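This part of the workshop introduces the protein records we will be handling. An example says more than a description, so a record of this kind follows:
>
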Amino acid sequence: MRYDSRLPRVLHVLLHLEEKSEPATSEEIGRMLNTNAAVVRRTMAGLREQGYVQSAKGHRGGWTLAMPLSEITLLGIYEALGSPKLFALGKSEDAPACLMEQAANAATEEALEKAAACFSDSLAAITMSDLAGDFAARLAQSKRRQ
């Protein structure tokens, strides 16, 4: 099964953008994520449309944050990415008229809706600033080990 890793990858990029003193080009971001610049531009465009990043063309152009990390929730980024499907599970459609299949589908759908709501609530409670703090703590711990 193929996983959609756009959310953690974009969060990674946003943390780097906060640290950079100049815009990051799509090519730089592509090298960071081991993907091509066209994929980066397509992904970042959704974030730009929601006001999280901005871009400038030409010499010294690239991507920058458009707002402070403290104003960006992980839920906002998830939604800007199109709210990728969380689970590979889905309802059965083998016998749609069967009442047993309907009951099984209803139970499955209810559980998936609850899980999606829990996931959204968790993302809404975390800002990019929280991730930056986690990074700083990990960096400090890593330096202490050296």
Notes: The mean pLDDT is 94. The chain has one domain: 6-145.
